[in-house]
Specification:
CATH superfamily: Vaccinia Virus protein VP39
Number of helices: 11
Number of domains: 1
CATH topology: Rossmann fold
Strand content: 15-25%
Shape: globular
Radius of gyration: 19 Å
CATH class: Alpha Beta
Helix content: 25-40%
């Protein structure tokens, strides 16, 4: 890989895969009884533990049709080609395959590709799982009815190029679903910029990108090469072609934990309607849906 930045990103995430463990990149999990349990990556127990954590983090997105069915229209795309860019450990791709989609899943990280292939084999699922760069997708124009990426494309310096590639491989009338981090969020404004940057004086030593990369993701693991959140205005004005129909929702499942950092137990004691209102305005994740004109 000729791009040094891409090489760093690929290597860092291969060394620190998104396992949802107690510590980022590890396979130690806390059980319901409070015990810590280490499992082997790629094992049945690993996928169960990682999925349980991932599902719990995103509980509001699950509906009667299954996990993430409040954002994914499984019925509409059953039997049709669906692409995931940045498949991680393969949980979302698995859900699409179980609902009958013809799944293609790609990742720059070889560990993610290996584990997603192992998951599909272990669960008896069909899918095309391969290594690929989001900025140079190995697919012909207009190949997919639905394409999505969850929490990935803010980790590449070529976010706009990657989104252009997704747009290229999407069929007319198809839809994109993209989750990107929100720069106008409590997590970024309070924990990253104020607490770390100002109070702890980290902005004296780190530029804005380094500060966001170190404290905005990956459980504050030092060395994360690139994390740069976006704003809703950027999404609407500069990330997609003119004429695209764009819908943006702010997802705020992180807000209670952020409030607890500010004042202990505040997130647990604050009325739920207030929490939801804060989440809809200041949540860390933007869920972006875009329809390609026919």
């Amino acid at each position: 890989m000729s791009d040094p930045a891409k090489t760093d990103i690929r290597s860092w995430w291969a060394d620190h895969p998104m396992t949802y463990g107690q510590d980022h990149g590890t396979t130690t999990y806390r059980t319901d009884s409070g015990e810590e349990r280490k499992v082997e990556i790629g094992s049945w127990e690993f996928f169960e533990q990682a999925d349980a954590t991932f599902y719990a983090w995103n509980e509001p997105l699950h509906g009667p049709a299954g996990h993430f069915s409040r954002i994914f229209d499984y019925e509409r795309y059953s039997g049709r080609p669906v692409l995931e860019v940045g498949c991680g450990m393969g949980c979302m791709a698995m859900n699409w395959a179980r609902h009958g989609a013809h799944v293609t899943a790609v990742d720059l990280n070889p560990v993610a590709v290996e584990q997603t292939r192992r998951r599909f084999a272990s669960f008896g699922l069909n899918g095309d799982i391969r290594s690929a760069d989001a900025e140079q997708l190995p697919f012909t124009d207009e190949s997919f009815d639905f394409a999505y990426s969850w929490g990935v494309l803010h980790h590449t310096p070529g976010t706009r190029k990657a989104l252009a590639e997704l747009w290229r491989v999407l069929k007319p009338g198809g839809r994109l679903g993209i989750m990107l981090y929100n720069r106008h969020s409590l997590l970024f404004r309070f924990l990253v910029q104020f607490q770390e940057g100002f109070v702890n004086l980290e902005s004296q030593f780190l530029d804005p990108l380094q500060l966001a990369s170190r404290y905005g993701d990956a459980a504050r693991q030092e060395g994360n090469p690139h994390t740069w959140p976006v704003t809703i205005n950027e999404v609407r004005q500069s990330l997609f072609p003119a004429g695209a129909r764009i819908e943006v929702r702010v997802l705020g499942t992180d807000v209670p934990d952020i409030l607890d950092v500010w004042f202990p137990f505040l997130g647990k004691k604050m009325p739920r309607p207030w929490i939801r209102a804060l989440g809809r305005r200041w949540g860390w994740s933007l869920w972006i849906e875009v329809e390609k004109p026919e």
